[in-house]
Design goal:
Blueprint lengths: L26 H8 L29 H12 L39 H15 L4 E10 L10 H8 L1 E9 L2 E9 L5 E8 L7 E4 L1 E5 L6 E8 L11 E10 L2 E5 L6 E12 L1 H11 L1
Antiparallel strand pairs: 1-10, 2-3, 3-7, 4-5, 4-8, 6-7, 8-9, 8-10
GO molecular function, one term: glycogen binding
Organism: Loxodonta africana (African elephant)
Protein name: Protein phosphatase 1 regulatory subunit
Length: 285
């Protein structure tokens, strides 16, 4: 039963049939049903355009050797296998620079050759050019005192001072010496205070422990080394030094009974047969 224009439509009852589902012939019908307004439909049987799942990958950049070959081909140059870069030669005058550089040295800039080196060069020259025995002079530091360890009162001095110089030797490498001390305690320090300027200025060198001096272990031996600057190899140069021993919170000195130990640079005349000199030179080589 239908009503008039102003009457409301009656709701369908429980037994009323539902409309059949609508079939969509193409994707446009589905899109039109969802959208608010009607959209034209494509021809029957049309499908959306398929896109391939696998996409071609972009070409990788060439490797370093390939790029070098490409660059060489572009510039007309050839690159040998294994070469890493192109070398270009440019001259200084093409860049506006001088072809030669001149440096002037002053007399004060000349290197100072140590005297012991000059002495050895003179000896070698005499050895090569002379057929007779060699006689030459050397300048070296010589102790102004006999070896203390050979003195008769060495043991008594060691008992009294607890530290005493044994002996000193000099060479091109420096001044070396040994010191004997009483083993009062395990912790001990031995140092050498020396001067090249008559005590106007002083320096110190630490002595190193070498080992026990006897089987009983009541005495220890320390070794030290002092440098030899070139000016010390001039005639009349002096080196003064004294020994300091610190042990058990006390300080003990050995300064040669107040006279200090000293070494003086002196000249010595040496005579050496040519045969012995040649053999020594061969062994030195």
């Amino acid at each position: 039963m239908s009503g008039g224009p102003g009457s409301a439509l009656a709701a369908p009852g429980p037994g009323a049939l539902k409309p059949a589902p609508r079939s969509f012939s193409c994707l446009s019908d589905l899109e039109g049903s969802v959208s608010s307004g009607p959209r034209p439909c494509r021809p029957p049987g049309c499908d959306p355009r398929l896109r391939p799942i696998m996409v071609r990958r972009a070409r990788s950049l060439p490797s370093s050797p390939e790029r070098r070959l490409q660059n060489a081909g572009a510039t007309g140059a050839t690159c040998r296998p294994g070469c890493s870069r192109q070398h270009r030669v440019r001259f200084a005058d093409a860049l506006g620079l001088e072809l030669a550089q001149v440096k002037v040295f002053n007399a004060g800039d000349d290197p100072a050759v140590p005297l012991h080196v000059l002495s050895r060069l003179a000896i070698n020259a005499d050895l090569c050019c002379s057929s007779q025995d060699l006689e030459f002079t050397l300048q070296c530091l010589v102790p102004d005192f006999p070896p203390p360890v050979e003195a008769a009162d060495f043991g008594e001095r060691l008992q009294r001072q607890l530290v005493c110089l044994e002996r000193v030797t000099c060479s091109d490498l420096g001044i070396c010496g040994t010191v004997r001390v009483r083993n009062v305690a395990f912790e001990k320090q031995v140092a050498v205070r020396y001067t090249f300027s008559g005590w106007s200025s002083a320096h110190e060198a630490t002595a190193r422990w070498r080992g026990p001096a006897n089987m009983a272990g009541t005495e220890d031996v320390f070794a030290f080394g002092l440098p030899v600057p070139p000016f010390l190899l001039e005639l009349g140069s002096h080196v003064h030094f004294a020994l300091r021993y610190r042990v058990a919170g006390a300080e003990h000195w050995d300064n040669n009974d107040g006279r200090d130990y000293s070494l003086t640079c002196r000249s010595h005349a040496l005579h050496m047969p040519r045969g012995e000199c040649e053999e020594s030179w061969i062994h030195f080589i």
